[in-house]
Structure formats: C-alpha cells, structure tokens
Amino acid sequence: MPTFVYMASCDGCGYCVDICPSDIMHIDTTYRRAYNIEPNMCWECYSCVKACPQQAIDCRGYADFAPLGHSVRVLREEEKATVSWRIKFRDGREKNFVSPIRTTPWGSIKGPAEYAPPSAAAMSSQELAHEPEALKVDVLPTLARSRLKKGLV
Amino acid sequence: MFVHNPFAALPASIPPVAKQTYVVVMFLLVVGGTLFDLAHKGSASYFFKHRRAASFGARRRVSTGEATALAVETIVVSVLAAGEFCSMLRRLTHILTMYGFVLYVVSTAIMVFAYPTAAAPGPAIVAELWYLGALLVCVGGYWFWFLQRVDVAAEGQSRFRLVRADLFIVSLLASTTFALLWAGFQGADDHTWANVFFGLYLLASTVLFASVPWSKFAHMFYKPAAAFQRRIEHANGFRGNLPAPADRPVTFGSARRQPQNY
Fold it and tell me: Does B169 fall in a domain?
C-alpha cells in the first residue's frame, strides 16, 4: 500500500521529495504540502516515512505480516542512530521493534570528494578504493601458495 | 520619513468612518472565511474525530494541570517561537513574517481607529511599528518566497512560478510592499504615485483578507490547535501510534564489535 501524508503534520520541508527513489513525492500546488503523485508506482521503501522530521508520512504494511486495519509507524532518531517500529494490530495487540541504523556517528563517513585522488599506481592495483584502510586492516588477506592444495599451482 | 501616520495623511475626501468601515469589513471577511473554510474542508470534524481516536488510544490520563502546562508550552514554543519547523532558516523567516504581520495589523487598527485624522496623527511610535512590521514581513516573506519555498528548493521550480499555495504569501507581500511605497511617496509629497500605490495597497489587502477560503491565511488559527493536540497525544502515550523513542540503544551491535556512536 502506498504512502500517504497527514496534511496537518506536514510542514512542507521537502525532505521526502529529495529522498524518494521513485521521484513520486511532490509538493501540492494548493497547500504546499507533500503528497504522493503516483501511488501505484510506490514500492513502499519507507524512505520518506523515515526521513520525514515531522512523522507526517504513513504507509500501510503488507497484508502478509499485518492484516487490514493495522497501523505500522516508524520513528527514526538520527542522534541515536535507531529506527523504531510499532505495529498495532486491529485487535489491539502491539509489536515494537528497535533497529540500529548504523554503527558509526553521523557525519563521520567521508564523501568520495573528501579523499585525495588515487595515484596512477593505485589505479593499476587490484585493491578497490581506500582498501585496505577502509576495511580497518593493514593488509588485505591473501592466500599463500603454501596453503593451496598441491597440484593447483 | 518613516514616522508619519499614513492613514491620517489621507485626503480629507476619505472620512475616518470609511477607513474604519473598511477595516471592520476585512475583519468580518477573515472571520467568515475561516468559518466557511472549517465547514467546507471538514477540517474541524477531522480534528475532533482524530481527537476522539487519540483519547481512545491513550495510555494514561493527562491531568488539567499538565494540560495547562502543555498549552503554555505550545504557545511559547510552537506559536511564539515557531518551534514546529525542522529547518532553522524557515523558522527564522516564519518568525520575521509572523511578528511583522502582527505589528502591521495591530498598528493599522490603532492608527485607523484611534488616530485617523491629520489633526491628531498620534504618537510616532505607532507609525514606526507599522513601518517596522511591514518591513519585517517584506524581509521574511521575500526571503521565504524566493529562496526557501519548497517548490523552488526541493522541486527545482522557477522562483517566479505562481500557484494557488502562493496566494497568501504573495498577497501579504504585495500589501506590505505597496503600503511602504504608498507611505514613502506620501511622505515625499508625490501625490500621484502615492495614490497609485494606495490603490494597489487596497487591492492587495482586499485580496489578502477576502481570499481566506482559498488561501493559507487560516493556518494561523488551525496550527496552534494541532500543535497543542500533538503535545497532548505525546503526553497521554497515544503519539499518533508512533513508537516510543528508543531507550536502550547500547544493546545494539554484536558481541564482537560494540557500536561507538553513543
């Protein structure tokens, strides 16, 4: 089921417009609030639901885990790096989950442009960009000839 | 230049009662437009339906004292400090426009009802507050409209595109801009341009106050009620069915590698 917006909570900040991978969250021309322009193209990725700082976007969960009449709501807490879920079934039962988003502080991961450009020698190396330091090891593990079965090399 | 009462300096052919009648009519248009808006869009019935659902899903009862404290908090944080905005710049432009509008409207009413004639133009501070209010609206409003409108900032639309959502901000900006121009030309004794801008000021102000059912004007009455209700829902545990904030994030991560971000 596609996303929908609680108009009374939306303040028209545009975060959902920026993050929607389908580019279907847009700003309505009458009230300048977000809305889903193409519900049948929404794949319920929950990106906008989690990004909304006002928790103004909602999305019904799939019927295979929660029958109709339920409520699935998400709270993303950037400072704690958590996403909390609350599923409220129509008979009143509830399930609550909390998941970590990441294990490093916000802003601690450098963007590609913040790294020095690779040297010509690095371009011909088999190592990927920023290996091995990005993997927090001194040297990438390799197989020694002595550890291979005889006859392979 | 920006110290004289422009309403008192209007030609004698416009009697004080005409100015006062215009203000009263605009006030009635706002009241009528807001009531029509409430009935037509069903926002009041939606609000009370949601409120019933919230009280049904409440986990604890909010006492009268607690509700009073939440009402005070709503007024101070959400209304007076525009605390509901997630962006500090948007909050700033909203505060500029809001306080400017209040100064502009209140000082207009004082000048029109208390000091409408050139014989008694009133204290300079009232006129100065009127100019200050109009100026604050212009600073906050143009800043918002050209740089922060989400259609421009997030959607990449032209800064000059006009849609129905712009009706309130554009008519408000037109009213304050033409008001400043009218008063400026009036102070410079250029009566031709003063009359032109006075006509435009009247037109823009009429559009601003008469277009309430089609514009976002009434948000200043709805938003405080919605903000108060949201605080009540947080206090009674309903929280719009949202999960409670995570309380023990330190339990995350595997045994081999504990998270370092708390």
Answer: yes
- Cβ neighbours of B85 in A, within 8 Å: 11, 13
Terminal Cα-to-Cα distance of chain B (whole angstroms): 57
Q: How many residues in chain A? A: 153
Give dist(CA A51, CA A57) in Å, integer.
Answer: 9
Q: What is the pLDDT of residue B209?
A: 97
Q: What is the pLDDT of residues A41-73, one digit of tens each?
A: 999 899 999 999 999 999 888 888 788 888 899
Chain B residues with CB-CB distance to A100 below 8 A = 249, 252-253, 259
Give a yes or no: residue B216 inside a domain: yes
Indicate whether B262 belongs to any domain: no
Percent of chain B at pLDDT exceeding 90? 66
What is the dihedral angle through the alpha carbons of B118, B122, B127, B129, rounded to the nearest 10 degrees? Answer: -160
Q: Name the burial class of residue A73, with classes exposed (0-12), middle (13-18) and buried (19+) by CB atoms within 10 angstroms of its CB.
A: buried
**Burial environment of residue A63 by CB neighbours within 10 A (0 to 12, 13 to 18, 19 or more):** exposed
Q: What distance in Å separates the CA atoms of residue B183 and residue B134, rounded to the nearest whole number? A: 11
Fold of the domain spanning A3-100: Alpha-Beta Plaits (3.30.70)
Does A84 contact B165 at a Cβ distance shorter than 8 Å?
no
Asked if the Cβ–Cβ distance from B151 to A30 is below 8 Å, we say: no
Report CB contact under 8 Å: A32, B165: yes
pLDDT digit string, tens, across residues A87-118 = 999 888 999 998 888 766 667 778 888 888 88
Residue B249 placed within a domain: no
Q: Which residues of A are designated catalytic?
A: 43
A32, B167 contact by CB (below 8 A): no
Question: How near does any CA of chain B get to the CA of A88, in Å?
Answer: 8
Q: If DSSP codes are grouped into helix, strand and coil, which group holds residue A99? A: strand
| ipTM associated with this complex | 0.80
Range of the domain at B227: 16-240
Domain ranges of chain A: 3-100, 112-147
Please give the backbone phi and psi of residue B3, each rounded to the nearest 5 degrees, phi first.
Answer: -130, -5
* Number of domains present in the structure of chain B: 1
